[in-house]
Amino acid sequence: MTNDLTATHGREPHPKAARLRQHVEYLAAEPRSRLRAPRAMQRAEAYVHDELTAAGWLVERHPFDARWQIGSTDRHGHRALALKPRLHRRLRGANLIASLPGSGDGPAVVVGAHLDSVSGSPGADDNASGVAVLLETARLLSEVPVPPRVVLAVFDMEELGLIGARQAARELGRRGGVRGMICLESVGYFVDDPGTQRLPAGFERIFPEASAEARAGGYRGDFILVVHRRSSAGAAEEWKRAAAAASPAVPGLLLRDPRPDGLLGLLIGLAVPPAGHLGRSDHAPFWNRGIPALMLTDTANFRNPHYHRSTDLPRTLDYERLATVAAATAATAISWPDARRTV
């Protein structure tokens, strides 16, 4: 098994893997939440701000005051977001939005990850892993001679129902537009043993091709699921190619959501639960606004037994593979294809 990397088979870890582990260990030292653990959330936010600034990014804090939001509870447990509904009267939070100096104007590619965890969980995989990859992506992009038009977004209150991402999708759409979005959602848990990957109920009937690929691989939990729609099919293929070039240890399994972008896709997801699983993270508000988006995930509760539990700890993650996720994400952000060339 490769889900407990307290040691790296007697070898020194790659510097990228060591950095990623440092990020996760700091962020996942304790549960963090604007409502339930505000001091820990402030500590984590300050760390991310300082790391992005040190990498040469201009970081802005975007507070929001959201009222009467339909969302979910952030109490721990394995139930999916759609099964934990709640109406929030008022939520005050903040997103971090970062850009590289000299990257120009025009529509951007957004790379985003949520910072908060559920109550009682340190959230190493969900979602310190995603934030760590975002920080490594920031470092990689800062080394590009001509900076691409990429915006990094660190979202608040994902566990309350994608609240921060809703605010960011609206704001970024006004500020020059968004070409595409890459969501990093629980990307660090891998298991090479057969039978460790589960599928949602009804999944094989609705998504036969992706199900067949998982079955052919012996239901091993060794891949990153790349969820996309027609508008982001080219970007999904680019991520898979970039991951294969970086390391054969992280195959990308592509899953095309057949729903259209926009409100209709949202309504279909509410009516068809297996499709609704594909919108359980911060890419969904971008889809709902007609913006092409990807979700990268290790499939969370369909693979990771520590999901939303106190045992979601840094030692359970694979940092060498996380480095591959970061390399492929940076490459895709740079080369995000024109949606008109996708099929």
Question: How does this model look, in words?
Answer:
One of its GO terms (molecular function) is metalloexopeptidase activity. Residues 95-190, 276-331 form the Peptidase M28 domain. Pfam families: Peptidase_M28. InterPro entries: M28_fam, Peptidase_M28. It comes from Streptomyces qaidamensis. With 343 residues, the chain is α/β, with parallel strands linked by helices. It has a single domain (15-341), classed as Zn peptidases (Aminopeptidase), CATH 3.40.630. Helix content is 36%, strand content 19%. It contains 11 helices and 8 strands. An 8-stranded mixed sheet has the order 1-2-4-3-5-8-6-7, with helices on both faces. Strand 6 (224-228), helix 7 and strand 7 (252-256) form a beta-alpha-beta unit. The chain is globular and about 45 Å long.
Q: What's the alpha carbon Rg, rounded to whole Å? A: 18 Å
Look at the helices and sheets and give the structural class.
alpha/beta
Strand content: 15-25%
Q: Kindly report the spatial arrangement of strands forming the biggest sheet.
A: 1-2-4-3-5-8-6-7
How many beta strands in the DSSP annotation?
Answer: 8
Inertia-based shape? globular
CATH architecture level-2 label:
3-Layer(aba) Sandwich
The CATH class label is Alpha Beta
User: Whole-Å distance between the termini?
Assistant: 37 Å
Number of domains: 1
* Helicity range: 25-40%
Protein name: Peptidase M28
Domain Peptidase M28: 95-190, 276-331
GO molecular function: metalloexopeptidase activity
Pfam families: Peptidase_M28
